Structure formats: C-alpha cells, structure tokens
Amino acid sequence: MTEKLQIYKCEICGNIAQILIPGSGALVCCGEEMKLLNIQHDETELGEKHTPKFENNDSGRNVNVIGHPMTNEHYIQFIQAYSQDKNELYTKYFYPEEEPKTNISFMPENSKAVEYCNIHRLWGSKDN
C-alpha cells in the first residue's frame, strides 16, 4: 500500500513519481517496480548540505538548502514543502547554477520539507 506524498524512482530510466492519491498497486516503470525513496536525515557534513531549512521573513517562509553545489554534475533538482496533514503541497524545481531557495507565503509553521539531490537522493527537514 502506498502513502500520500511518497516518492519513487525508476532505477532504469530515472523517472520520478510521487503518490498523490494512495492505492494498493505497485508502481512499475521500464518493466520493473520503482524504488521507494526513503527520506534521509544525517548530522554529518553531508546531511548539513542536504537538509532543507525553513526561515521566517516578512513575506512568508523561505525554504532553502545551504552550501550544496549547484553544478551540471551535482545539484538539487527540487524542494517540496508540505503541511503536516499533507493537504498542502508546494514544489519548486531547480536547474544547475540556481540557488536552491524558495519563498512560500502560505505554508503553516509546522510544515515539513524534502529536497532531492541528483546524486544523494531524498533528504528531509529535521522534523520529517
């Protein structure tokens, strides 16, 4: 059984899919089951460069990843923020050379965030 907002990746072609409405079937791509990406947390330097962080400002809340490379070979592909009940979802996609930062004016204080690195995969804010 899938869960709302889980993220899966095809290990063959690289497709990434997210569950919006859970179901009982398996996600299949290129003839193989897609792999569920678990949210990583780590207190090391690797974790620090991948953990999305919230900061409040006058126009809402920023979500950013500090100190991560943004090159063609290694970059943050997206950041997502979502409410605790998972009924509000915001996604921002990035390209190499962009700063991995976004402002979200509607996210409540208890929101959570994840980011996807093209090399190190899925990382979550400390309260995920």
Can you identify the CATH class of the largest domain?
A: Mainly Beta
- Report low-confidence residues grouped into runs of 5 or more: none
Terminal CA distance? 20 Å
Read across the widest sheet, the strand sequence of neighbours is 9-8-11-12
Tell me what you see in this structure.
With 128 residues, the chain is mainly beta. It has two domains: 31 residues, Desulphoferrodoxin, N-terminal domain (Rubrerythrin, domain 2, Single Sheet); 80 residues, SOR catalytic domain (Immunoglobulin-like, Sandwich). 3% of the residues lie in helices and 38% in strands. The chain contains one helix and twelve strands, in the order E-E-E-E-E-H-E-E-E-E-E-E-E. A hairpin with a 2-residue loop joins strand 3 and strand 4. The radius of gyration is 15 Å and the shape is globular.
Q: How do the strands and helices of this protein lay out in sequence?
A:
Elements: E1 7-9, E2 16-18, E3 28-29, E4 32-33, E5 35-37, H1 45-48, E6 53-57, E7 60-64, E8 76-82, E9 89-93, E10 101-104, E11 112-117, E12 121-124
Antiparallel strand pairs: 1-2, 1-5, 3-4, 6-7, 7-10, 8-9, 8-11, 11-12
